[in-house]
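Dear Dr. H.,

I hope your travels went smoothly. While you were away I took the liberty of generating a structure for the chain from your last submission, since the lab meeting agenda had it listed for discussion. I wanted you to have the full record in hand beforehand rather than looking at slides cold. The sequence, exactly as received, is reproduced here:
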Amino acid sequence: MEELTIVIPTYNSSSTLDLCLDSIDRQTHPCETVIVVDRFSLDHTPQIAKAHRALLIQSYANRSAARNLGAQASNSSGVLFVDSDMILLPTLVEECSRLLLDHDSLVVPEASIGRGFWASCKRLERDTYLGNDSIEAPRCYRRKSFLAIGGYDENLEAGEDWELRQRSTRMSFKLGRTQSMLLHDEGKYSPYMAFRREYAYGRTIRRYVRRNPSATLKQINPLIRVLDPSVKIMSKDIPHGLGVLVLRAVEFAGAGIGLLTGDAEISNGTLRTNNSPKIRSNVQICN
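The corresponding predicted structure, in token form, is as follows:
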């Protein structure tokens, strides 16, 4: 079995991080290290990380750069990237550690959980993407292979996982897939939350779209990403199918407005807007 490090980028994540780290503590096979790369949170995120004995690295790096920092700080042969609002099923680390013996990268399927009607819609929509190679992207890598291809593109804040999969495919990475899943906690999801999140992604996805026009046609095509899941769900559950249609339309509107009006740029792994000062990306490792 390969030893595994889990890397978690965070920013003001105190509402979800404890559950994430608790699910890591409950794994059937322990990971070697947990590294939390925090963007100098203003809440209790650092204290929660320390309470779970995670290695805390603080940096103004964006999500892509934060993941790379975590991988570089690891001494394990494998690395698994998760978000602070995700919960690991108990056998995930054990399965990743075993599969990395024969694979360079692993897709870890994701399911949504949350409260209320809109969270249920999000769960059903995400289920329609399971096994879709144009949507799913690896989250677990053999560390040597990950570093050899340069890790995540730090100039991308959106679409970075898709871009890394395309690059690893060109390098003939042997790709595997776990049966254990990651649960993405959407909380009490709503169209307003969906719009805000996708607007933020839209402001930074322009660079990915320019570099990957052909892949973009599949990955963010409204016919595929809005109508297809809605029709599939509506054939079995009309209310939730209509809900998915509304939710995806709102998300695409937010992403589209962000794409057209966004002025965000990324320099040296730091996300900035035209109105924000340049911030030096210092790195602090906290014991």
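Two observations you may find useful: Residues 4-286 form a domain with the Spore Coat Polysaccharide Biosynthesis Protein SpsA; Chain A fold (CATH 3.90.550.10). The first strand starts at residue 4 and ends at 10.

With kind regards,
E. W.
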